[in-house]
Amino acid sequence: MTRYQHLADLLAERIERGLYRSGERLPSVRTLSQEHGVSISTVQQAYYLLEEKRLITPQPRSGYFVAPSKAAPPLPALTRPAQRPVEITQWDAVLDLLSGRMEEENMLQLGSGTPDICQPTLKPLWKIIGRLAQKQDARLLDYDTLYGVKALREEVARLAIDSGCQLSADDIVITTGCHEALSIAVRAVCQPGDIIAVESPTFHGTMQTLRGFGLRAIEIPTDAVTGISLEALELAFEQWPVKAVVVVPNCNNPLGFIMPEARK
User: Fold this and answer.
1) Distance between CA 57 and CA 38 in Å, rounded?
2) Contact criterion met (CB below 8 Å) for 102 and 96
3) CA dist., res. 148 & res. 72, Å (int)
4) Which residues pair with 200 in a beta bridge?
5) 111-114 long-range CB contacts below 8 Å, 24 or more apart?
6) Quick check: helix, strand or coil at residue 127?
7) For the segment 219-246, what is each residue's pLDDT rounded down to a tens digit?
8) Are 218 and 86 a contacting pair, CB within 8 Å?
9) For the segment 52-79, what is each residue's pLDDT rounded down to a tens digit?
10) Rg for the chain, CA atoms, rounded
11) Do residues 94 and 54 make contact, with C-beta atoms less than 8 angstroms apart?
12) Do residues 253 and 227 touch, judged by C-beta distance below 8 A?
């Protein structure tokens, strides 16, 4: 095997493993030449070979880029959960996830649903937080009203206008996260033992909240493109006294879909 073939195989393996992602710029010819101790012509021959295999694409004056993926991985099939209310179980697996015992080195944890706070786009936010801390403003460590900071509620109301919502600051409650918001909504309409319809699969935090209030869940089949099955949901309404429905129509966790507007 020639040097350029060996280098091409190495780069192809990196692409296959996702180390170089679709559309990502590959190292320059000079960089690879220095990294692997080969000539520039060897690197060029390796890139030509990968180009023939349609694994990479050249862009004039920009370099080489990983070719777009030929096909997306298959979507999960429509779920088929039990069509009856059930107690929320299998809790040990969720606790393992939350405690971090399932974490492994070099694995990106998606189960917690938290953003990557190391992204450079957050630098302006860090600067603002730093400036506020330097001012030693006591409001940073103090309680506000139960509804949340009024200035923040006024800003949210202003931004909501773009979505067609006519709100005032008094119509808004600031919570400490999605769990508190969901908790307030559930407690407003449910009593222990009531039945809640949820997507299948659903966000584990939803099940955590429902379990904490002693509620039962009925899982509704959910499609990875169109979202919760409206037909199955209607059938559940006919059979059971469902008190509430919990759905995540935008950027669904864990399936990732955005429900079509007509089905919303």
Assistant:
1) 22
2) yes
3) 43
4) 221
5) 111/204, 111/254, 113/203, 113/205, 113/253
6) helix
7) 999 999 999 999 999 999 999 999 999 9
8) yes
9) 888 999 988 888 999 887 666 777 888 8
10) 26
11) no
12) no
